[in-house]
Amino acid sequence: MIVAPILIARHAYASFVQLKTAQEHTIGTLIRALEAKDRYTAGHAQRVAKFSSYIAQEFSFGPRRAERLRYAALMHDIGKLVVPNQLLNKPGRLTEAEFDRVRLHESVSVELLRRIDFLAPVAGDTTTEAATAAVEGGLVEPAIIHVADAFDAMTSTRSYRRALSQTTAFEELRRGSGTQFNGVCVEALVAAIERRGESYGAGHEVDDHDWAVAPPEAGTGSAGLGHFMAEEQGAKP
To answer: Between the chain's N and C termini, which has fewer beta carbons within 10 Å?
Structure first.
């Protein structure tokens, strides 16, 4: 009677370790595939996962929920595996057809996450409309990733625009609070970064870039879609 519970506990723990190893292997394989295709996007995924974890800590997520969020954040752009590199890194504006092709990665990413059992609960769409709906339905994870993704996009140099300053990125997130971004998630990220005394964006980047064409000082928004989206909304790019 004493030995049996110990054996059961050992078996349960061994099964947990095996499952954990399998999960890590699944994520690692997909991230390596993304790295092989686009080294920059892979670095972006790691930073989005870090910023998402910051927000999770502000919200006092439990360990399991925080871990699933980190995995989902790491894989939020995995659908870019189906997008040609010349579109991901295009320095000029996208055509309407190119825009639609790049946007395809969002639905592919969500579908891939839904097919992985342990990530399915947080596999919500991270587009603005879907993230807002998810929050209203009690699932805040897509909104967290949406904010973390936007912050890193603004504070990173990309082929179509040099990095913005952290101050500018915070201002843009707050300007979009309540419409483009979930305001609570925005304030949680700002508070977490400021509390840590960290700085990102212009003057604080650590990644080396080797662009065929030097990025302009000013340019488009996240994912290289800014020109087209701004024109649709009647705003300046």
So the answer is: N
The rounded distance, in Å, linking the Cα atoms of 69 and 3 is 37
Using the Cα atoms of residue 209, residue 211, residue 214 and residue 216 in order, give the sign of their dihedral.
Answer: negative
Output 136-143 pairs: Cβ under 8 A, ≥24 positions apart.
140/59, 140/182, 140/185, 141/68, 141/69, 141/72, 143/181, 143/182, 143/185
For 130, other C-beta atoms within 10 Å of its C-beta total: 16
**Full-model pTM:** 0.75
Q: Which two tokens stand for residue 142?
A: 């897509």
CB 183 within 8 A of CB 191: no
